[in-house]
Amino acid sequence: MPELPEVEALAHHLREFAVGRTVARVDVASLQVLKTASPPWTELHGRTVTGAGRYGKYLDMDCDGLHLVVHLARAGWLRWADTLSAAPPKPGKGPLALRVHLGPPGEGPGFDLTEAGTKKGLAVWIVTDVQQIPQIVNLGPDALSLSRPELADLLSGRTERLKNAITDQRLISGIGNAYSDEILHTAKLSPYATAGKLSDDALTKLHAAVHAVLTDAVARSVGQSAARLKGEKRSGLRVHARTGMPCPVCGDTVREVSFADKSFQYCPTCQTNGKPLADRRMSKLLK
What we know:
The chain has 287 residues and is α+β, with helices and mostly antiparallel strands. Helices cover 26% and strands 18% of the residues. The chain contains 8 helices and 10 strands.
């Protein structure tokens, strides 16, 4: 799933290569990705791209006051091309959901929004005001904007596990499954620690880890081509998706906890005082 660093890099890419260009045509291959009906996507035609930004994990391309906002979900991606096919795509065929031509079709550049797999979550809104999108209105503060006191206030009194708290977009926006694993490993905190019961020292380590991990990931990602971002993300991960491999800090074996549709990774020595977490659904810390 694209998270804050990758979406920031995509926004940077659009600012560098799309701003100043005109939307010549938008092709919709999957109507289900459109979460708004008015204005229609054809209202983007003829508008100049004037900016691009990010709200948590939501990508925003401003087309002279009309916003194309994208949430890439778990398996979505933005694929930039210097030249796109002029032929309109066939609806429902392949991973392509939406195509944006930023120049004469068949001659100019643009990008495809694609989504792999059968579980579809890619979402697109076309709005005159980003605050018209409930999901964005309900976002918590951006992870990179948080001060240490603000983080402490957000977590105060919360009873859920720390892993769940820092990936709750209504609480803190931008952190997903992969970077939460990296943040908790860097801070040497258990994913199952109670969010509202962290010591002052643990809060300080968590805040420092949030900024260090995300800042480093943004620095590695910004300036990369969209095609290389996934590989760049994987290359910088120390525990996430590294089940069975040695922890780069202590050498212990990276472990995994699996749930119905996702999993997370951690290092027992670094994070849970050497105690493995039970690898079963609804697992609890082994006593």
